[in-house]
Every structure is written in structure tokens, then in C-alpha cells.
Design brief:
By secondary structure, the protein is mainly beta. The protein has helices at 72-78, 117-125, and strands at residues 6-8, 14-17, 31-32, 38-41, 50-56, 83-92, 98-103, 108-110, 113-115, 130-140, 144-153.
Amino acid sequence: MTIPDGFGQTGTTARVGNSPGQAVKPGSMGQPLPGYRIDLLGGSGQPTQEGEMCLVLDLHVLGLMLACEDDPAKTVDLMRSGFHRTGDIAFCDADGYITYVGRADDGFKASDWRISPFESESVLMEHPAVAEAAVVPSPDPVRFAVPKAFVVLAGGYTPRRA
């Protein structure tokens, strides 16, 4: 069974998805849906292949919230420089398919070190025995949180205690 993926937020309708009849790429959320133009912005604020998913506001966008209720400062922050900023990081391939990477703000502190789950997962994924990895903060009484990894082994590898 093919399960199409997609992306939307509480303040909008679905923005990215796999429309009926469109080829589905495993792991990808699909392509921008009709009525939406998505740019991935890097740290410099310029479009890039991997960056923050931003909805371009150069046209009137249906299905987008008008403001954050009772929080004008938050509205200004989300809607700056002609973009609605999601806070989500994604990657766009040469065919225009967008793959979700993670939240821009999903880091956590452990012993006063800022830990990025995405960076930790990326390092784990470099090992040939790892098919998938997820890193989350696990409570720790001394260090507040420590990274905890959940790993799916690649085919041909058997779990064992080290």
C-alpha cells in the first residue's frame, strides 16, 4: 500500500503533499500544493536547497491564519520579510520534492551543551548498521537531559549487547 505524506500546520491548511496521480517518493512529504509557493531559506535569508520552510506571501494565500490572537509581536516574527516562517527545516531535491528534516528549535541542553537531534541522528545514520535513528532528550537528575537514541538496524545486522 502506498501511503502519501504531507505537511500542514495549525494556522494553515496542507501546504505540501502528494496529489492524486503524483509519484510518491518514500520519505518525502511531496511537492507544494496548488495555491502555495514554498521557499527553503538558509541562515542568510536566501533560498537554498535545505533550510527553513517558508510560505511566500507575494500572493494572497487562502487558508493561512491572519494573525496570532492576542500576540502582535509573534505575528510580526512569523510574517517577516514577505514570508510566513514555519520553524521547520526541510530539504528539496532536484525534482521539487520536499523532505522534512526537523524543527529549527528542537535542540535541547545537556550539561549546558546545546544538542541538536538532527546532527546527532545524521552522525548515527553514517554507520552502515543504522537504517533509521531518532535522538530525543531523556531526563537526567544531574545534567537536566541527556541524548537518547532509538535506532533501527539495517538489513543483515543482528542486535546484540556491546
